[in-house]
Write a structure and sequence with these properties.
462 residues, hydrolase, protease, Macro_dom-like, Leucine Aminopeptidase, subunit E, domain 1, metalloaminopeptidase activity, Aminopeptidase, 5-stranded mixed sheet, 9-stranded mixed sheet, Peptidase_M17_C
Length: 462
């Protein structure tokens, strides 16, 4: 079921949210009837701490949850969702003195905490989930759209490669297009060569599952936005094969594609006044007799030659052709998203989405959007001094320079050569939560989409 708030007319129980500083006042005021119970059970209003409140008739009378300190909230996003996870099914409403931002975070966390990936457990009993009545004063349609887009992204990433190859990813695009009246086109297999997408073809040709370029369009008026997502449905590393521990999570290597599709769903569900294009090069990077080889030199769609010094640096190859194609058509902003480099994870860890921006005004808008969407990002530079690192001499570009430093930056510089747009922005995301976290179960996760969604009015003037 898509995430949604409880109906406005439903009977609800109170979900009291209390800060440590406000605990004494709560116990002597709204919580006075349960002060003895809360004191006896040691309730301190720590972030996400929960107590269910018994009624006089033995039925549930409500719940109280800790808001925690400012420091605790700064250290753990969506911390209140820890309490939501302990609630029984039923409908609830928020009680307590919360700021607008705190209410928005609580509402979004509540919806996100309802995510379940149970495709491969058909016999598992689905517990009744608690539902929240839409808080007054919030753009709840926007919050529901953000949560639904995130659920799509998580589902796509969590699906194993056996059921999420290039054809299945294409079907996901078709399904999304059908829901919102978008149009689609796909270029597959050897037609990629015939229509001049040589790097997408080179990466995907070794798989019996045909590589393809997926193209979705929606909207007829307003500024143009082009999203490009890396769709490597599984990555063995090619002939430069990954070790087993490096391959185990590679079903998530289409996380860029999954995230731009989640963002596209948000945009279309909210009927934003813009013209949207989504391009996804969808491939498997596997091994067979016709796989590309180290030191091969590819001539890209843009005409730039690329020396393949590592077949495991395939994402930037397929994105290069897709970005060049995107740049051939007028657009007001061009954004790529990819699970591209381990260097980005070393730089900022799994919880931050590093990005690169050609345009400072877009970056300012994004930072504000990230804060409003509880979707942290971190800007890294297109450092021109490293341009020479990606130039091998024998070809125009090197897909895996042996520089040994700044691997995420040199990858971003590589992509910029193909994007060729003054308002280009690139995200190097992880797309996976390595541990259970509030409102983010272990597994696939979107990054950067809510930040972009919130930034679009300022970015595009809509």
């Amino acid at each position: 079921m898509p995430p949604a708030f409880a109906p406005a007319d439903s009977a609800t129980l109170p979900f009291h949210v209390v800060s440590p500083d406000g605990l004494e006042a709560f116990l002597s005021g709204p919580g006075a009837a349960h002060a003895g119970w809360l004191t006896a059970t040691g309730f301190q209003a720590a972030l996400g701490e929960l107590r269910l409140l018994p009624g006089a008739d033995g039925k549930l009378a409500g719940a109280v949850a800790g808001l925690g300190t400012d420091k605790a909230r700064a250290r753990q996003r969506f911390g209140l969702a820890k309490a939501v996870a302990g609630l029984p099914g039923g409908d609830w409403h928020l009680e307590g003195t919360l700021t607008q931002d705190q209410t928005a975070e609580a509402a979004l966390a509540w919806l996100l905490s309802g995510y379940r990936f149970d495709r491969y457990r058909p016999g598992a009993a689905a517990p009744a989930l608690p539902r929240l009545k839409a808080p007054a004063g919030l753009d709840t349609a926007r919050i529901e759209a953000m949560a639904a887009g995130e659920f799509l992204t998580r589902d796509l990433i969590n699906t194993p490669a056996q059921d999420m190859g290039p054809a299945e990813l294409e079907q996901a695009v078709l399904d999304l297009a059908a829901r919102f009246g978008a149009t689609t086109q796909a270029i597959r297999g050897d037609d990629l060569l015939a229509q001049n997408f040589p790097m997408i073809h080179a990466v995907g040709r070794a798989s019996p599952r045909e590589p393809r370029l997926l193209d979705l369009r929606w909207g007829s008026t307003g500024p143009r936005l082009t999203l490009v997502g890396k769709g490597v449905c599984f990555d063995t590393g090619g002939l430069n094969i990954k070790p087993s521990n490096g391959m185990s999570l590679m079903k998530k290597d289409m996380g860029g594609a999954a995230t731009v599709l989640g963002l596209a769903q948000m945009i279309m569900a909210l009927n934003l006044p813009l013209r949207l294009r989504v391009l996804i090069p969808a491939v498997e990077n596997v091994i067979s007799g016709n796989a590309q080889k180290p030191k091969d030199i590819l001539t890209s769609r843009k005409g730039l030659t690329v020396e393949v010094n590592d077949t495991d640096a395939e994402g930037r190859l397929i994105l290069g052709d897709a970005l060049a194609y995107a740049a051939e058509e007028e657009t007001d902003a061009l954004i790529s998203m990819a699970t591209l480099t381990g260097a980005a994870r070393i730089a900022v860890g799994p919880d931050l989405a590093p990005y690169w921006a050609q345009d400072d005004a877009m970056a300012v808008a994004l930072e504000a959007g990230a804060k409003a969407g509880f979707d942290p990002v971190w800007r890294l530079p297109f450092h021109d001094a490293y341009e020479s690192v990606i130039e091998p001499g024998i070809a125009d570009l090197d897909n895996a320079p042996g520089f040994g430093f700044a691997g995420s930056i040199t990858a971003a510089l590589f992509l910029r050569r193909f994007a060729d747009h003054p308002r280009y922005m690139h995200f190097d995301i992880y797309g996976h939560s390595p541990t259970e976290a509030p409102a983010r179960p272990k597994g696939g996760v979107g990054q950067g989409a809510r930040a972009i969604l919130n930034a679009l009015p300022q970015m595009l003037g809509i």
